[in-house]
Amino acid sequence: LNLIFALEGLAYAIKYEKNLQIFLVFQAFLLGIAFLQGISLWEFSILLFAFGVFDALEMQNSAAERLADVVQPKFDSRVKVVKDRLAGSVTLAGITAFTLWVVLVFF
């Protein structure tokens, strides 16, 4: 039952979250290039893991932003700090995943 809810949440995010859609297309493109460059299965698995962590953080960030907007619809500097930190974690994961891709594909 919990798995069903989790899959519904994943499907909702993929269907309605524009940023996640863009990231998934970009990641598919990067994985295609990596595959064509002949990276090993192990390296490919590492990239899938890094992209998965990034996507999971993006989903958490989107969910937390929506929740924060419901709880506090007006501007609140405390909520801004939380949103900014969540966005920062997504950015850090994205930079890390992309750097990992560059290293595995080109070096």
Question: How would you describe this structure to a colleague?
Answer:
The model has no long low-confidence stretch (mean pLDDT 96). Helix content is 89%, strand content 0%. The N and C termini lie far apart (44 Å). With 107 residues, the protein is mainly alpha-helical. The radius of gyration is 16 Å and the shape is globular.
End-to-end separation: 44 Å
The whole-number mean of residue pLDDT values reads: 96
Number of helices: 4
Unreliable stretches (pLDDT < 50, length at least 5) are none
* Large-scale geometry: globular
Whole-angstrom Rg: 16 Å
Class from secondary-structure proportions: mainly alpha
Q: What are its keywords?
A:
0% strand; 4 helices; 107 residues; mainly alpha
What does this entry show, briefly?
This protein is mostly helical and 107 residues long. The chain has helices at 2-16, 18-36, 41-71, 77-106. The chain contains 4 helices and no strands.
